[in-house]
Amino acid sequence: MRVVFLGPPGAGKGTQAARIAGLRGVPHLSTGEMLRRAVRERTPVGLQAKGHMDRGALVPDDVVDRLVAERLAQSDAGRGFLLDGYPRNPAQARALEQVLARRQGALDRVVYVHVDDDTLVERIAGRRGCPKCGTVFHLAARPPRKAGLCDDCGTALVQRADDAETVVRDRLKVYHDNTAALVRYYEERGLLGRVDGNLPIDEVTHAVEAVLGSAA
Ligand code: AP5
């Protein structure tokens, strides 16, 4: 199963990719998570990425393409993967095709999770995440059992630095200017499956499963 999750910031790509990864036993590869870890650990990639991420801009393609190619070379990705947040523009999509042509084979499916802009802003405002294990919560839609603490590891939850309202608006603009073009790109290749991400989390998961049915 070689799948890309596509959609605007806050659409629920990460939430759904994490669930499907658990159900199907393939790794969930989030470029946002990889980059945030690199920033926390102050690696050369993290130092390069931080300024771009802080202002909601895309990290340069060559940095992200290399990061993904290295991750896809690891053995667990040999049995499939769910890419979340990559590719982000047609140039990254072509870079991914080249890597896959040398390794796993072509993509099976692209899941496009679409959500209204007003809902996106509300979702991002209510998002809290675990800095240790990466589990994502929402104050209303998916609250932790104990306020402020991760259900899985008990760590204090935090708000992402790029979830500040001004940065969110810039991220939405970047999405519309760059990433939205990928919807047509993958539609033309017959890979796109649309999912209504405005629905409750469980219903979205059912819709994603329906789109993936033939890609298993
Ligand atoms: P990244 O981490 O990929 O951020 P994003 O694409 O903006 O997506 P989000 O993580 O904000 O949202 P999501 O769709 O995963 O939603 P979630 O499931 O959390 O990227 C961050 C930055 O890294 C970028 O700005 C860029 O700088 C850089 N970067 C990353 N990839 C890059 C690339 N390829 N190239 C260049 N730069 C790159 O859900 C959101 C909230 O809503 C949560 O609280 C969740 O609990 C809740 N929720 C989810 N589903 C539902 C539902 N159905 N109903 C109610 N609430 C829900």
The overall strand count is 7
Number of domains: 1
Bound molecules: BIS(adenosine)-5'-pentaphosphate
- CATH top level assignment: Alpha Beta
Q: Could you give the distance between the termini?
A: 6 Å
The low-confidence parts are none
The CATH H-level superfamily is P-loop containing nucleotide triphosphate hydrolases
Taking Cα atoms only, what radius of gyration do you get, to the nearest Å? 16 Å
What is the CATH topology descriptor?
Rossmann fold
Helix residue percentage: 40-55%
Q: How can the largest sheet be summarized?
A: 5 strands, parallel
Question: What is the topology, as strand order, of the major beta sheet?
Answer: 2-3-1-4-7
> What's the SSE pattern?
EHEHHHEHEHEEHHEH
**Shape annotation:** globular
CATH architecture: 3-Layer(aba) Sandwich
Q: How large is the count of helical segments?
A: 9
Please name the defining characteristics of this protein.
globular; two-stranded antiparallel ribbon; alpha/beta; Rossmann fold; 47% helix; binds BIS(adenosine)-5'-pentaphosphate; 13% strand; 9 helices; five-stranded parallel sheet; 216 residues
